[in-house]
Amino acid sequence: MAQEPASGLSGIRFLVGTWNAGQGTLADTGGTTTGQSTITAEAGGAVLLRRDHTDLFDRAGKPSGGFDQIMMIYPEGSTLHADYSDGRHVIHYDQAVIEPGHAVTFTSSALPGQPVFRLGYRLLATNRLGVSFSMAPPGSTIFRPVADGTLSRTH
Fold it and tell me: Which single residue of 2, 5, 59, 119 has CA 20 to 30 Å from 81?
């Protein structure tokens, strides 16, 4: 049975659904991505759980790998937090800027010797979502794109 997000997640309710990714871009290789993403309310609506599969293609369009990833989004204190893992990496996002019903940008903390990550979602149309992922090298405040793309809601 589908659950509704709790009030602490109501500003990002627009994320809930099943999404297919069009062709995304990888900034560092010139390659592309495709994939699927499902975002559901779980634990009585207290968290949003994102489950993804991403396929990678090289610059020539040939398959070059793929991976699964999950992210749990939850309110804690006065902001949203999110924890991401793809089985090889973990990112703890502890800051979020929300435009209720339209956009959310998660940012990880600046830790000595570690990059800072930023993940943004923006509702482009009723069933279209823009996604961007960027990184600032250790000691820098300048974010460089890693990947971006557009998702289309299928359900």
Answer: 2
